[in-house]
Amino acid sequence: MSDYEWREYAKGIIKSEIARKNLSLIEVANKLDELGISDTPQNISNKINRGTFGAIVMLQILKAIGCNEIRL
Q: 61, CA 20 to 30 Å: which among 2, 28, 46, 48?
């Protein structure tokens, strides 16, 4: 797979998990804040839409939204 395809794959995983939990990006930002991670909904959206976020950001979001398992 190309880098572009990997970015789209990662973006799809995050977006689908947020949708599965039926959360808005405002709610995601609030849940991250509860973990001590300060980020705005717009910044989260930008990171997701670019698909260039690192593994740490991906894990932080998944943990914050209560995702304990993902299917690859």
A: 2
What's the chain's Rg over C-alpha atoms? 12
| pTM confidence score | 0.88
pLDDT in tens, 39-55: 999 999 999 999 889 99
Contact, 65 vs 15, CB < 8 A? Answer: no
What is the amino acid identity at position 25? Answer: L
The rounded distance, in Å, linking the Cα atoms of 23 and 64 is 11
Q: Where are the alpha helices (DSSP H) in the chain?
A: 3-20, 25-34, 41-50, 55-64
